């Protein structure tokens, strides 16, 4: 399935949807403080893998990132999604559909969890629901998860959800210390996994 999009801003896309325990939604103005708090609590787990986590951002920097996330969502150029506990309203983590190719309808899912909520299946739940969203609302043809080959916790999310491991890209990127690293590519594609 493929269809040409004159301009993705014309796409009608929900800004919020739910899984069993989560509200999964586009960023909103004033989300910055909540996200900043989670980054502070999670910095030791984020730093090895996330290039933006070299140091704790200010609340204002987190607000800027959230507002940019909202603007990009509305443009349909990048679909960041915040994960909020349905019952408590607490911020659980961040995910989204990135590096979008609207012609191919290809998306890459990224994610991080706020450390107090790790090891409880929230990210697996969110990625499963976001995958469903991409297939059904965005007519995805290809959904990728990419991670550093040493990031076993991230790889386990992809494997738990039956993404297919397509290969390992050698010397693909530099890690946070500037050293060459390998990237594992997982995917689901229309006609094979869905
Ligand atoms: C990658 C990352 C998001 C994984 O977080 P996580 O807490 O392991 O992932 P989940 O929320 O899906 O939880 C899965 C764990 O909870 C357990 N779990 C408990 N209840 C569960 C449930 N209902 N469903 C699924 N898993 C459950 C699983 O057994 C699993 O633990 P295990 O891996 O020790 O077996 C986290 O390590 C992180 O934020 N890392 C830093 C940022 C990063 O590397 N991002 C990815 C870049 S590619």
Automatic annotation (TrEMBL):
- This chain's protein is named N-acetyltransferase
Alphabetical keyword list:
Transferase
A GO cellular component annotated for this chain's UniProt record is:
cytoplasm
Picking any one GO molecular function of the record gives: protein N-terminal-serine acetyltransferase activity
Cross-referenced Gene3D superfamilies: 3.40.630.30
Q: Does the keyword Membrane apply?
A: no
Top-rank lineage group of the source organism: Bacteria
């Amino acid at each position: 399935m493929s269809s040409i999009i004159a301009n993705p801003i014309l796409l009608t896309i929900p800004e919020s949807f739910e899984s069993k325990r989560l509200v999964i939604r586009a960023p909103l103005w004033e989300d910055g403080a909540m996200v900043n708090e989670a980054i502070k609590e999670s910095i030791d787990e984020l730093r090895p893998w996330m290039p933006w986590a070299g140091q704790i951002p200010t609340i204002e920097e987190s607000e800027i990132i959230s507002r940019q996330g909202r603007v990009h969502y509305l443009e349909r150029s990048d679909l960041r999604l915040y994960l909020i506990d349905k019952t408590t309203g607490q911020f659980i983590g961040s995910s989204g559909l990135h590096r979008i190719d609207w012609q191919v309808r290809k998306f890459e899912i990224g994610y991080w969890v706020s450390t107090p909520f790790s090891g409880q299946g929230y990210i697996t739940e969110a990625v499963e629901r976001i995958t469903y969203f991409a297939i059904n609302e965005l007519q995805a043809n290809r959904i990728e998860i990419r991670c550093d080959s040493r990031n076993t916790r991230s790889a386990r999310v992809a494997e738990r959800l039956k993404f297919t491991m397509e290969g390992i890209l050698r010397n693909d990127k530099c890690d946070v210390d500037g050293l060459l690293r390998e990237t594992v590519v997982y995917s689901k594609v229309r006609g094979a996994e869905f």
